[in-house]
Specification:
Layout (H helix, E strand, L loop, with lengths): L1 H10 L7 H22 L30 H12 L1 H35 L16 H13 L4 H11 L3 H61 L6 E2 L1 H10 L1 H9 L7 H8 L7 E2 H13 L5 H34 L1
Antiparallel strand pairs: 1-2
Helix pairs in contact: 3-7, 4-5, 4-6, 4-7, 7-9, 7-11, 8-9, 10-12
Length: about 325
């Protein structure tokens, strides 16, 4: 109650825009009504509504918000819920199959089981005599012995010894339930979990893209403020000053895997015309690419060194050609 009042005092009208606030308010209101009803009916004349307090368990739904703090846990929970439909369908198929085998058990196994029970083999086992008496009992016996593996030989072995042909039915039930149906259900559950994981990966990529776009907009705004001479471009010195003097710029660049040491190589690669400045949009776009890349700024360092080697090679070749030209001109 105090928490809801504090939120209403802070949020005012926006309090009613949150689903979780309305859920808390509904639960608090229900508790207050129940307290008033209990206080007004101390003599016990009024019916009890205490069972409605179970509704308070809905507060546990608030723990869903904690999943936002742990993405991997959220993926696991989402994968679990994604398989509910498959597991429900598998459970229905399993029940149908057990009913079919239960009918066969009543028709073929119950008469044999009655003869065994009459001979006194099942002394001390109260349920063994009626293991295949009805379809539900037979289905329960198959589920106990074959699916869960509990007391397999208690009923099955005496029936097989009495009627060896019954081993064929037991083997068929085992193959269909254990080796086929349960494995098919497991495979479908795993497949559905993988589909949910792929969908979650796409959702994470979209969320990361949204975050990157927001950071890019902030970065573009900061770059405009860092342009001290307002010429529409940033110099390498202005980038380094941004790291030293602008905490917000340094924080965003650190988030996007861009360090102060990357300024030189990245600037040299982007400033292809050696004008001494780079455009805001071009710089922000390249920073986003660095953030999306697993290698970060390593590729820019490699490009920078290749560019330096290329420039030195071209300069060396130009000097060699000049020397060769001078030598040929001197001979003439």
């Amino acid at each position: 109650t105090l928490e809801s009042l504090a939120r209403f005092y802070i949020w005012r009208g926006a309090f009613f825009c949150s689903f979780w606030n309305m859920l808390d308010l509904g639960l608090v209101t229900l508790d207050l009504i129940l307290l008033i009803v209990d206080a007004a009916s101390k003599d016990g004349s009024a019916p009890s509504f205490s069972f409605l307090r179970v509704v308070r368990l809905l507060r546990l739904a608030r723990s869903i918000r904690v999943l936002r703090m742990f993405p991997q846990l959220a993926l696991m929970v989402h994968g679990l819920f994604a398989t509910v439909q498959v597991m429900a369908s598998g459970l229905l198929m399993l029940c149908i199959t057990l009913v079919i085998f239960g009918i066969l058990g009543v028709q073929f196994l119950h008469p044999v089981n009655q003869r065994i029970a009459a001979s006194g083999v099942y002394e001390g086992c109260e349920r063994c005599e009626r293991a295949f008496k009805s379809v539900p009992q037979a289905a329960l016996t198959f589920a106990q012995q074959i699916i869960t593996g509990d007391s397999w030989g208690q009923v099955s072995i005496p029936i097989i010894e009495e009627q060896p042909v019954a081993a064929v039915l037991f083997a068929f039930v085992f193959i269909v339930l254990n080796l086929m149906l349960l494995n098919v259900i497991l495979a479908l559950v795993v497949e559905e979990s993988l589909k949910a994981a792929k969908a979650d990966d796409r959702a994470l990529l979209l969320e990361q893209e949204r975050i990157n776009n927001a950071m890019a907009k902030n970065l573009l705004r900061i770059c405009e403020a860092m342009d001290l001479d307002e010429d529409g471009v940033l110099s390498e010195e202005e980038l380094r000053c941004g790291f030293d003097d602008n905490a917000e710029f340094a924080e965003i660049m650190a988030t996007m895997k861009f360090t102060r040491e990357d300024c030189g190589p990245v600037f040299s690669v982007l400033d292809a015309d050696r004008s001494g400045g780079i455009d805001y949009l071009e710089f922000v776009d390249e920073v986003r690419k660095m953030h999306a890349s697993e290698t970060g700024g390593v590729m820019y360092v490699v490009k920078y060194h290749f560019a330096e080697l290329r420039a030195r090679f071209l300069q060396s070749m130009e000097e060699e050609f000049d020397m060769l030209h001078d030598a040929l001109a001197g001979r003439q």
